[in-house]
Amino acid sequence: MKPLPTLRQLHYLVAVVDRCHFGKAAEACLVSQSTLSAGIQELENLLGAPLLERTRRTVLPTPLGREIADRARLVLKGAEELVDMARSVEDPMSGPLHLGVIPTIGPFLIPRVMPALRDSFPKLKLFLREDQTARLLDRLESGELDAAILALPYPSGDVESIDIAEDRFSVVCTPEHRLSDVTTPRPSDVALDDLLLLEDGHCLRDHALAACSMEGARQSAAFQGTSLHTLVQMVANGLGVTLLPQMALDSGILRGLDVVVRPLGGERPFRRIGLVWRRTSGRKETFRQLAAALKTEMSRDSGPQAPANGDASVRTAA
């Protein structure tokens, strides 16, 4: 049987390729620089080809080194999933879990659910990462994240998901605005040239436009904000109207502002909130239990409503 690279050697190579620096790579791997360098040299000897170009100041991967590092990431991710699978058999709700969440959910949801999650799963150690959807999915695919809480629908690649809530949209405007007199504004009532939305890259922008049947007019909104807090300040100053999800309203984002809230009408005036993970992950029972707990917490009081179908069925996207 031919000799094969070790996982440690592949880990060292990926660390150097990602950082192009031996010292930083050694620090990330928690080993000395000499140990890391020796491990990569052993890998090069085993493969019979140079993987790195070394100078006194820089280190760069060769074309072969870059390709092997890309494949090594898949091997390392698969090995981690084998370990996760074995651990989840003993206690699926224990150990570290790296969870991503988007900015239009994280600040409103996390403070609300974390106390209950700590009480329900004291052995589960959550590490949270807030970022936009596309970057979270990239980190999910690379193995940096185990799962993510996203607003759906969104083209998510090879993942599975469970819906945990439906987050209804409401129209927010000043008392002087014409929509303040409409009990349940229809999508056609929301004038496009008056609508304030988040900038491109935030999936809430697309979901709000879809709720108003304005998918084809993504670049025409009057203002593009960087956060929901910015949008509500613009509305309060009479510069237009916006759509806010219920979880943001429940968090008190409008507290102290002289504005009016009206529930949006239409066929689907909401976004779906879901937990997503890699289809190949070995921690599916962990995610099912986490999704069930999130669904319970999000359905309490007057917040986002749990999916109407009752069961939190798993969806697969490819």
Automatic annotation (TrEMBL):
InterPro entries: LysR_HTH_N, LysR_subst-bd, WH-like_DNA-bd_sf, WH_DNA-bd_sf. One of its GO terms (cellular component) is protein-DNA complex. Coiled coil: none annotated. Keywords: DNA-binding, Plasmid, Transcription, Transcription regulation. GO terms for molecular function: DNA binding; DNA-binding transcription factor activity. Residues 5-62 form the HTH lysR-type domain. SUPFAM superfamilies: Periplasmic binding protein-like II (SSF53850), Winged helix' DNA-binding domain (SSF46785). Belongs to the LysR transcriptional regulatory family. This is Hydrogen peroxide-inducible genes activator.
